[in-house]
Design brief:
Layout lengths: L15 H4 L7 H7 L5 H14 L7 H8 L4 H20 L1
Length: 92
């Protein structure tokens, strides 16, 4: 009797370039992958962004900063990673 194989998981490998090959890696996704925010914090920030700023959309990073969910340095790093993902996807 064969035992089912566990899916291989590499914590250092980020799924974003594979999950978003069309050059649309989202900042919130990057922030969660880097461990800067939780999926619940992202969901709350997106709800606030949609509810409070229907006509004048505030950037997600600004909402996360105002909620205290990330630091300015974390936001800058996440934007750098997002840019790297998009460059890599554009090369494919």
């Amino acid at each position: 009797m064969k035992t089912p194989k566990k899916p291989k998981s590499n914590k250092n490998e980020s799924p974003a370039p594979h999950a978003e090959p069309d050059n649309h890696t989202l900042l919130g996704q990057v922030m969660v992958e880097l461990g800067y925010i939780t999926i619940y914090q992202l969901d709350e920030a997106l709800q606030i962004q949609r509810a409070e700023f229907k006509n004048d959309v505030k950037p997600l990073g600004q909402v996360l900063l105002e909620l205290g969910y990330c630091t300015p340095n974390q936001l800058i790093r996440a934007i750098q990673v997002q840019s790297d993902y998009r460059k890599a996807a554009a090369r494919k």
